[in-house]
Amino acid sequence: ETGVTQSPTHLIKTRGQQVTLRCSSQSGHNTVSWYQQALGQGPQFIFQYYREEENGRGNFPPRFSGLQFPNYSSELNVNALELDDSALYLCASKGPNQETQYFGPGTRLLVL
Amino acid sequence: KNEVEQSPQNLTAQEGEFITINCSYSVGISALHWLQQHPGGGIVSLFMLSSGKKKHGRLIATINIQEKHSSLHITASHPRDSAVYICAVGNTGNQFYFGTGTSLTVIP
């Protein structure tokens, strides 16, 4: 039990639609990162937020965007969904003086 | 070429064996992480290293910054250790790079 929750657990969308995935972190965890993990692959870093500002980004297009809220929750938004966006999306958070990231269970997104 | 390479990709061991998983990286890093992912996707962070060695129970992680190499060792392996072990590195630009993982199966 990491104290990090994600919703929904599973989601099916069609190509061209938009999706919002949610992550709820432990109180005090002001850094949150989002990752995409395609089937059989290692996770890929999407971006990181610190105190509601994006402060690191991987090689993902602008249609992947995020928000972090003062209540330690965050969102990943993906516009104009493509078939290749089908993956497990993971969020991970950590507190200001912590080394360890705490991962949520992930949201499985299927784009048809 | 991936920034993070792991070996082996797949590993099968008998219960009780000593296991080593290797990770090499090609980017400058601020820290290296070892993660454990069970079927179904849940990920647990095992270690974060920036130098030297760390030990937690039967798990030991080492890093050699000069050689850009890290190893994860499991002593007295057990079937519950069966999982995918992922090496990830973070750089000073707050970017993370992941290996594709090592799938470990420990047979009773």
What does this structure look like?
The complex is a heterodimer of chains A (112) and B (108). Chain A has 112 residues and is mostly beta strands. In chain A, 0% of the residues lie in helices and 52% in strands. Chain A has strands at residues 5-7, 10-13, 19-24, 31-37, 44-50, 53-57, 64-68, 73-78, 87-94, 102-103, 107-111. In chain A, the strands form 2 sheets. In chain A, strands 2, 4, 5, 6, 9, 10 and 11 form a 7-stranded mixed β-sheet that branches. In chain A, strands 1-3-8-7 form a 4-stranded antiparallel β-sheet, with no helix packed on it. The radius of gyration of chain A is 13 Å and the shape is globular. The N and C termini of chain A lie far apart (32 Å). The mean pLDDT of chain A is 91. Chain B is mainly beta. Chain B has no helices and 11 strands. Chain B has strands at 4-7, 10-14, 19-25, 31-37, 43-49, 52-56, 59-64, 69-74, 83-90, 96-98, 102-107. In chain B, the strands form 2 sheets. In chain B, strands 2, 4, 5, 9, 10 and 11 form a 6-stranded mixed β-sheet that branches. In chain B, strand 7 (59-64) and strand 8 form a beta hairpin. Chain B is globular, with a radius of gyration of 13 Å. The termini of chain B are far apart. The model of chain B has no long low-confidence stretch (mean pLDDT 91). The chains are: A mainly beta (112), B mainly beta (108). The interface between A and B is medium-sized, with 26 and 22 residues.
Instruction: Provide mean pLDDT of chain B, rounded.
Output: 91
Structural class determined from secondary elements of chain B: mainly beta
Radius of gyration of chain B: 13 Å
Counting DSSP H or I runs of 4 or more residues, the number of helices of chain B is 0
Strand composition percent of chain A: over 45%
Uncertain runs of chain A with pLDDT below 50, 5 residues or more? none
User: H/E series of chain B, N to C?
Assistant: EEEEEEEEEEE
Helix content of chain B: under 10%
